[in-house]
Structure formats: structure tokens, C-alpha cells
Fold each of these.
Amino acid sequence: MTTILPMRAEAQHPLDLVGVGIGPFNLSLAALLDAARTVRARFFDKKSAFAWHPGLLFPDSILQTSFLKDLVTPVQPTSPHSFLAYLVEKKRFYDFMAGRFDGVSRVEFNDYMAWVAARLPSLTWGQGVAAARLRGTALELELDGGDTVLCRNLVIGTGMRPVVPDWAAAQLGSVCFMAGNYLTEKPSVAGKRVVVVGGGQTGAEITLDLMKRSDGPAGISWISLLPRFSPLEEGGFVDQVFTPDYVQGYRTLPQAGQSQEVASQKLASDGLTPQTVDAIYSEIYRQRHLCGGAGKTVRLLPGREVFDVRQQNEGSTVLTRAKVNGVVEAFSADVVILATGSKPCLPDFMSELRGRLDLDDTGLPKLDENYKMAWDGPPSIGLYGMNLGLKSHGIADPQMSLMAWRSATIANAVAGEEMFDLSSSGGLVEWPVSPQPAETKSAVSA
Ligand SMILES: Cc1cc2nc3c(=O)[nH]c(=O)nc-3n(C[C@H](O)[C@H](O)[C@H](O)COP(=O)(O)OP(=O)(O)OC[C@H]3O[C@@H](n4cnc5c(N)ncnc54)[C@H](O)[C@@H]3O)c2cc1C
């Protein structure tokens, strides 16, 4: 077990590792390090307890990843912090298996992760990190209350930042609401005209919820930039992309090739789950044809970009432009829900160190194969980024598929030894790999 020193001691003796943010990604690292004797680690989160996107935790939502790709199993199947260990301890194993579920509910997976979080002494809740600065050969982190902690390695796991379109910014909280707060903020929708902007899984789940609510809106318009409401690409060959072997090949590609890969795989990660698509379709069919004319009006509006929301005497008007022909349309709305996605970002507490990092053209730190940032600070300090590597590590980075493998990669790098065996026997698919400088000659002559 990780030894926890009182905070005063950590202000003088640097910890080996501090993780900031305890979402699934840093929770996975904390779970893997729980049994480590050589790495003294501590993790902080500003929330008071573990909660996985609580504003979107619908009772019927299904995990898009296998439960075997939990916090630990892919790299440490004997860990006491696995999903199977959770089922066994909850005396639910046989009921779960007999259910033959297509997937685990997100509610249950959240409960599993909260169960792991409650078992880890290295986690500190209700403590945000406000600033990071150099203190000699260590890094000093200032917590929200003013306490400080020293460390040699920092792992940023603060998640993505929701995208607020420019046209919505001035009306946030009045007409426009962020999808991520849908269940916690509970905007009043009863009897109103609601526009959902965003054709991804979040927009789909909110549209379905609005349709099914007994206190639901009078009408729903679901607008998507994408040309159609497309389901997730699934299957064995698609899943081969969510493997360490793929990531290793991806890292050898030139930048243009990497961008092409990520763009072509969009539906493997951002498509709609077939269950949600089927449920929306059935509900629309029911409302339109089987409710004796009393069903809700649901408009499906793909291929349109919203460019403004204007206040009118009664409610607002959402203006869109069609991608294929530029036609402008107006849709009446009392409430606009923004399911407009999130993007990776460096947290504000890194502002003092930002100028010392080697950033890419999107302003994100460049990451090496161990998720370590390139910077000009003392080499004794390691800065690692989770959920910052869509560009550098490919499509699996914002996802849970490889979270245990990534945590183990970081743990090995911080420990300077092979705590976890991450060697591979090669994947089933031979992805294009760019020859590295030293290999070029033999690859050509082979
Ligand atoms: C609704 C939803 C469903 C998803 N479902 C799936 C799925 O089924 N399968 C899949 O593979 N992926 C899924 N994802 C994608 C991804 O797995 C999740 O977004 C995941 O939560 C990312 O984990 P994270 O640890 O990077 O960030 P987060 O879960 O966002 O956690 C970040 C944490 O950092 C804390 N924090 C932020 N700033 C500070 C600070 N300064 N100091 C201290 N703490 C701070 C926050 O309080 C938060 O707890 C889903 C995403 C969403 C939004």
C-alpha cells in the first residue's frame, strides 16, 4: 500500500508522484500504484467524492467499452480493484453473468469506480490544485486552501474542457445550457420548445431523455453538423485500433498521416451506440404514428451548422446553415442544450510552467511514448499528461479502452523499472508503420 505522509511532511519531502484530478484515468493509475512499494503517490481532486460525469449519468446508458477494460485488468488481472472483484464483493457475480448484458450500465461502472476510490488511501478529495511552480529540483503544487505539496512527477488527469460555441456564450444559463450539467442543473423543459445541438452520443442520450420524460417539452429539434446520425463502428477489426500495438505504429507516422488516421476513425469512437439509435427510432415512431396525433413533435436535423441564437419577443430563434447547400433556416426555441463536445486542454494551474513546455500547434504539450511532456525544466521532474494525447497517441487517448495500459506505461516510467509487463506478441492487423531513421535501409532491402 502507498504510505501517506501528513501534508506538512509532503511540503518538505517530495512525493514520487502527484496526480491532479481523479476521474477514471488517474483513478486507474492510483489503483495500479496501490500495491507499489517503490512509488509514494498522492492524488487530489476538487470534487468532494468520486463521480463520473454525474450530469450525464442516465439510468439506461451503457458503457461503450468492455467491462474487462476496467481500471486495472488489462495489465494486472489479479488486482483486487477489478470490476470482477467488485461484482464478487457485492455478491452480484452470478446475477451479472446470467444477465448476458450487451454492456455494463454506466451507473454500475460509476458505482464500481466509486467503490475502488473508497478503498484507496492515496486519494484526497475536496482539494483542488491552484498552481504549480518549480522549487529547486522538485515541483511545488499549491492547493486551493494555500497548503503546498512537493513532488518529483506530476500526472495531469483533469479531463477535457466543454466547448462553448461563440454564439452561445452570452446566453449561458438563460437560454443555453451545457449538456454536461443536464441532470445536475435540470433546466426546466416542461411544455417548452427545446433545441439540442450536437449529433454525438451525448446529444442522442439527451434527445431520448427529453422524448421519454413525463414532464417533457412540447417539441424537440435535434441538430447535428454531421451529415447523418451514424452508429458506432464496431467489431473485432475496428477494436484492433484500441490496442497498444496500434498506438505504437501510429506514433511512427508523419503528422499528416496521424491526422488522416484520427479523422477516418471518428465513428469508431464518436458514433452513436446501436441501443440508443434503436431506442430513439422506436420512440419517434411511437410518438408520430401510435399516439393518435398527441405525440411530441421531434425534428431530426442533420447536416446543419448553428451559427447564432437570437432573442425574440417570445423565446429565441436558432439559426442554422446547411452544409451541403448553404441554406439558412430558423428554429424556435425556449431552451437550447449544447452537446457540442469537449476538447483536451492544459489546466489553468499550469499557467506558470506553460511557457517552458514544448507545445504543438494546438497549444497542447508534446508527449513522448510514455506520455511525458517535453519541457526545459530540470530533467529530475517528470510532467505527464492523460487525455492530452489525441494527436500524439491517436483515437484511443480520450477513451477508457487503453487507460490501464497507459497508467502502467506512466507507472513504469516514473518507477524507472518494469513494474508492469507491457511487452506484446504483436496485433492481428499489420498497420502501416513508418521506418525509423536507423531502420530505413534494412526495411527497404528486406
Ligand atoms: C457522458 C460520457 C460518457 C462516456 N462514456 C465512455 C465509455 O463508455 N467508454 C469510454 O471509453 N469512454 C467514455 N467516455 C470518455 C472518457 O472515458 C471519459 O470522459 C472519462 O471520464 C475521462 O476521464 P478523465 O480522468 O480524463 O477526466 P474526468 O472524468 O473529466 O475527470 C477529471 C477530474 O479532474 C478534476 N479536476 C479538474 N481540475 C482540477 C484541479 N485543478 N484540481 C483538482 N482536481 C481537478 C475534476 O473534478 C474531475 O473529477 C465518456 C465521456 C462522457 C462525457
Amino acid sequence: MADNKDNTAETTSKVKEEQLPEGVVLRDHVYDGIQEYDQKLPNWWLFTLYIMIVFFIGYWVAYYQFGWIKSDVERLNDAMAVVKAAQKAELEKVVANLDDDALGKMSQDPAMISAGEKTFQTVCFACHGKDLSATMGGAKLPGEPLNDAIWKYGEGKPMGVFNIVMKGSPDVTKGMVAFEGQLGAKGVVEVVAYILSHHEAKADGTAKPKGK
Ligand code: HEC
């Protein structure tokens, strides 16, 4: 340290006062040939600094000490919890009022059918065909035909159809995935109404293709 001081003192000269612009004060100290201004910082600059410090203290107390301000993750989780609770409530409400009769009636409700048709023709047609026959251009698609008299699951009852769409195949790895998560109970009800609109209820409560 002492060496440095000596070196700089020898090799550099101080700026003369006359050479400075008016109002500029220099520090006496020279280091590596550099002399520093000794100016007061502008007030606007200082104020932004002070405001920042005050803000920091307030924020620090509110965020870390009292937890008044929630992080993005916490807010997201809260929002998701609200959505989840609403979905659960909706599901319970829909399912609680649902039976074969109610679903059968919905399959005659044009608003339900057209909402379900939209879903079917975007989500389900790839495996079950645009006309529910599980074929496309003569080729067999992976799904089961939904416009025939044969129901693999749920004994052909409306609630049986609802349950397989909600929960998927008994073995989802080989069959069909569950659509409860993607469509919600309401979406599933609509799409089932659309499927059943191609059927009519027989005396034993099963859905059979219209006119057969
Ligand atoms: C990735 C292809 C695929 C998609 C997409 C798909 N399914 Fe399926 N679906 C299948 C398969 C495969 C089966 C037969 C499952 C089995 O045998 O376990 C099936 C079976 C069904 C059954 C039971 C049929 C019966 O005879 O009991 C219904 C009802 C059904 N799907 C409705 C739907 C609806 C509604 C959608 C759209 C929300 C949909 N599927 C989307 C492949 C699909």
C-alpha cells in the first residue's frame, strides 16, 4: 500500500484548479493518475435512492416478516385451488343430479347436443369417426363404433356411457383415456348427450340406434 502511494505521487501530477470547469471540486487524492470529482449528487438522484431504500424496507417487512405479499407461486396455487374447488363442486352438482333418465332427456336438448357435437368433432372423431362409426374413408379407426346397438361397456345405459367417457377404459393403457380432466363433467355430459342423440331408449333402458 505504501509503495503504491509513493509511485503515484511521483508519476502523476494533480490537475490545476484553474483548468476545472466552474463549480467542480476535485479530491486531493490521486491514484493511477486519476483524480476524482468531489461533487454532491443531484437531488433527483438522491431522492430516487431514498425512495428506493424506504420502499425496500417496507417491502422487506411486508414480504419476509409478515408475509402480507404473496409470491407468484403462492398466488398461482391459491388460484388453482379455487379452480379445483369450483370444478369439484360443479362435478358433484352435475353428477348428483345425473341418472339415466336425466341424461336421456339431455340427449333430446338441442343446445346440449350441439355443444357436445362441437366437442365430439374436435376431440373424439379421430378415433370414433365423424359419423360415430369408428371408420374413416372405409378404414377402421381405433375406437368403438358409437352408433351401433353394441355397447362394450356400461350395458348400454346412458350412465354407463357417461362413466366410460369420464373415467376411461378399465385398462386405460390399452383402451381409451379418461376425459374427466380435459372436458370436465359438464363437457362429458354434453358429448354423451350428442352420442345418445343418435339413439333412442328401449324398454329395458338401453340406448339403441334410432329406428332399429
Ligand atoms: C385415442 C383414441 C380415442 C379417442 C380420442 C376417444 N376414444 Fe372413445 N374409445 C377408444 C377406444 C380404443 C375405446 C374402446 C376401449 C376399450 O375397449 O377398453 C373407446 C371406447 C369408447 C366408448 C365405449 C363404447 C362402448 O361400446 O361401450 C365410448 C362411449 C367412447 N369411447 C366415447 C368417446 C368420447 C365421447 C370421446 C371424446 C371425448 C372419445 N371416446 C375419444 C378410443 C378413443
